[in-house]
Design brief:
It contains 7 helices and 7 strands. A 7-stranded mixed sheet has the order 3-2-1-4-5-7-6. The chain is an alpha/beta fold.
């Protein structure tokens, strides 16, 4: 993340927006189960919310500094793992559900995003839910905070086909002005590579 983006996502206003406006509708009606994986928690506003709602929460963060700060802040409430979501350090069928919020556009290539989707499917138990949000990449503010930063937006209309190719079904995408929500379920035991 560049400095402006780092500052923006670390503001209390952004954290409130994630906790109050992005996460609740994204997980409303989703059966999260006991063992939940959050991918790319960043500064952790969604992690804090989820830690109070689920039995066991694991958050996977690629940025060691952000992971360390989360680990310290959420000690005993969540497991914070360092790692890359395109090659997760978890065994097959480890989680009941997986979630990610406003992070897919930080994955640098479409191929890496598709590896992330395949990895999510791999670590989910059959029938497990995958839900989250991301930005549609609209507006000057979004462009400015991504100058010199990774910005690889997935169009909401493209996401269902890509999730289906990774082995998900019951896919729903709800687009709004600046963001979208998605949810899907892991299909049976078919191997996806």
């Amino acid at each position: 993340m560049n400095r402006l983006h780092h500052w923006y996502c670390n503001r209390d206003a952004w954290k409130r927006h994630v906790r109050d406006e992005l996460v609740p509708p994204a997980i409303d009606g989703v059966e999260l189960g006991a063992d939940v994986l959050e991918i790319g928690p960043g500064f952790g506003p969604a992690t804090e919310l989820l830690a109070g709602r689920v039995e066991s929460l694991t958050a996977l963060e690629i940025d060691a500094g952000l992971a360390g700060a989360l680990r310290e802040r959420l000690s005993g409430r969540a497991t914070i793992a360092d790692g890359d979501a395109t090659a997760m350090p978890f065994p097959d069928a480890s989680f009941d559900s997986a979630v990610c919020f406003t992070m897919l556009h930080h994955v640098p290539t479409a191929e890496a995003q598709d590896r992330l989707f395949a990895e999510v499917r791999r670590v989910l138990r059959p029938g497990g839910a995958f839900a989250g949000t991301d930005s549609v990449g609209r507006g000057l503010g979004f462009a400015l905070i991504h100058i010199g930063d990774t910005k690889n937006v997935i169009a909401p209309g493209e996401l269902p086909e890509r999730l289906a190719a990774a082995g998900f079904a019951e896919i729903a995408v709800t687009a709004e002005r600046d963001s979208y929500r998605f949810r899907a379920k892991r299909t049976g035991n078919r191997s996806v590579s």
